[in-house]
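Q: Predict the bound structure with adenosine-5'-triphosphate.
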Amino acid sequence: MAVAAALLRRRALYSALASPSWLHDTSSCYICSISGTHSLVNHPNLRLQRGYHNSGKFDLTDLTHPHIWYPNAREKKRNVFLHVGPTNSGKTHNALKRLEASSSELLMNSVGVYCGPLRLLAREVAQRLNKANVPCNLITGQEREEIEGAKHSSVTVEMADMTTEYQCAVIDEIQMVGCRSRGFSFTRALLGLCSDELHVCGDPAVVPLIQRILEPTGDVVTIIFQVNSRNCFFSIEFVELSNVYFGVSTDTRIMSSNIPICWLYVSMQVQYYERLSPLVPLKTTLGSFSNIKAGDCVVTFSRRSIYMLKRRIEMGGKHLCSVVYGSLPPETRTKQATMFNDQDSNLNVLVASDAIGMGLNLNISRIIFSTLEKFDGICNRELTVAEIKQIAGRAGRYGSKFPVGEVTCLNSDHLPLLHSALKSPSPIIERAGLFPTFDVLSLYSRLHGTDFFQPILERFLDKAKLSPDYFIADCEDMLETISLIFFEMQFAENYAKKGIVRLKEIFTPGTLQVPKSHNQLKELESIHKVLELYVWLSFRLEDSYPDRELAASQKSICSM
Ligand SMILES: Nc1ncnc2c1ncn2[C@@H]1O[C@H](COP(=O)(O)OP(=O)(O)OP(=O)(O)O)[C@@H](O)[C@H]1O
Ligand SMILES: [Mg+2]
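A: Predicted complex:
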């Protein structure tokens, strides 16, 4: 009876949690207290970002329950499938088979989505689905290729849409959830994709973390259920009962009896894969560039060294090189990769950075590391085991024209590290990146009444409370983007409201100072972009953005 009672209580509480009355009054305004100050705000997403003050009041900076930020996903009983294994073991292939099988005949607007870490990979998957007669859009930060009637999309993970309902969703390279700057996008997709089936592909090192992250979500997972020392498998619903996670079985045999629940072991449906074709670490280095052969890919990590290596190889007169690196415009990157992959093209050697580092199926026979060090935006550091394995794993792809992959380097000192990295398991990933939703940040900034985004964000992140499974994403580059979007949103909002945007509503002229820190310089760069945006808009909507002179003068002060 205990279980049935718990179930009733759970149903009552759960529906309350879904739209907590303690948060909104009838006029759908929300009362919340931020460090003691009360204010009325009208915010549709507020109830999703729930946190408890000891006084039971509301705290926007409480990020300890990120799973409730995504109500659409929480209202679904998602079936999660983890495909884990080494590179080139068929993980993505099998997940994509499910995506292809999700039928476009369904009346839903969208049926399936693939979310990957790289534009090239999203493009490869879109091409694969279109070739399999499953019309599929390609959506990345810079590209949007839409196919008439397509109900499938292949996107870079940052572009994943949390509001659309899917039948099948794939998140590839989920181990990226531990990435300092991009991990939070993978966490967002993992918690927020609203799909009946969710296929998650990646390195085994991330499985324990994924289990912990998904445990409070209410997803229907397979539980190995120990009842009186008999192992039974039941599909079960995980719900949150006043912060104690209480597994309630939907299986009648358990429901009707009052078998005490001894313990719950949460296990996803985890499929382990083995590598489909061998990857051989060579005992010797390349030696000289005259030993370069068709199908080689030389890996380096700066634009300058990419072009230097390309020149060195082409001087030998035997090979022409394609180049692929991150800051190359997306369409050029695709063209270069396609020409390298094309058997008839004369570009039969590739010089690339880690822009090819994950998931891609290129016709590479041998990976040659020119270095095992890279600048990661903060400092020069050695490649991690996971990075070495991911990049090396591009060689000898199953089904490519090179059935065996080889990997070596230019510098003999690097051979020991290369061999040991390829033999070691990737270190367990302990924490996932997290970042508050934009709604919450803009609400928090309004409640603290200031234009400047940077101090608001720093203050928010100072106060943010996280559970041990998460870390706050490194928001350097994001800051810039957000403050620009932030201003653009304010521009658009003011324009929509009044049809006119005075500069002083967005930016206080005369407040510019010489930056004394890296962050202040970043802030100045963002302000410069905002002023540039205002001037750009003033040329197109002169009456609505009348302060062009002022904006232009402030902009030149900025650049000085
Ligand atoms: N069962 C299969 N039948 C035919 N081709 C397959 C099969 N499994 C995998 N492949 C092909 O083998 C190559 C490697 O598979 P896949 O990309 O799925 O590996 P992966 O485990 O995702 O690798 P990575 O970790 O590098 O992303 C792909 O070209 C894929 O299409
Ligand atoms: Mg893959």
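A: Residues 1-56, 222-267 have pLDDT under 50 and may be disordered.
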